[in-house]
């Protein structure tokens, strides 16, 4: 199973995510994510054999406990790109309030999952919600202008859990299913 750990945005913020995506709709070369599946990825695990799921669940349970983070409020807004405005691969909306707590959760999960043999991240963690992936540079100028000139606010929500999710890649994009929930 292709798995990752995430904090899902509530359905109530899907319209806000879609509204930000609409500002980028004229940019060619973008492949938009489904606003109904919006989430903040804390750790991408990749392929996990079903017989290792219990081991991963134990590690994440321990990580969430060790992070010492209780339920908290998070705000979503502000545009950015990875890796840079000169070479755009991902367009995202960031996390303001709650970024420190998400980072604590990420760091604890990173420690536990790398101890199990999962690959460590090779970049700094930036809490974000992916809006689109850029397949080619045709729309780069428009994306750059929107990112530099516009502020965006999606909304706020209460973070109460981390989810282990599996991702099945289909013709209409990925389908996500929650495997396990870890309460804060």
From TrEMBL:
One of its GO terms (molecular function) is ligase activity. The keyword Ligase applies. Signal peptide: none annotated. Its EC number is 3.1.4.58. It is an enzyme of class 3 (hydrolase). It comes from the Archaea. A motif (HXTX 2) lies at residues 128-131. A motif (HXTX 1) lies at residues 39-42. It catalyses: a 3'-end 2',3'-cyclophospho-ribonucleotide-RNA + H2O = a 3'-end 2'-phospho-ribonucleotide-RNA + H(+). Pfam families: 2_5_RNA_ligase2 (PF13563). SUPFAM superfamilies: LigT-like. NCBIfam families: 2_5_ligase. Belongs to the 2H phosphoesterase superfamily. ThpR family. PANTHER family: RNA 2',3'-CYCLIC PHOSPHODIESTERASE. This is RNA 2',3'-cyclic phosphodiesterase. The lineage of its organism: Archaea, Methanobacteriati, Methanobacteriota, Stenosarchaea group, Halobacteria.
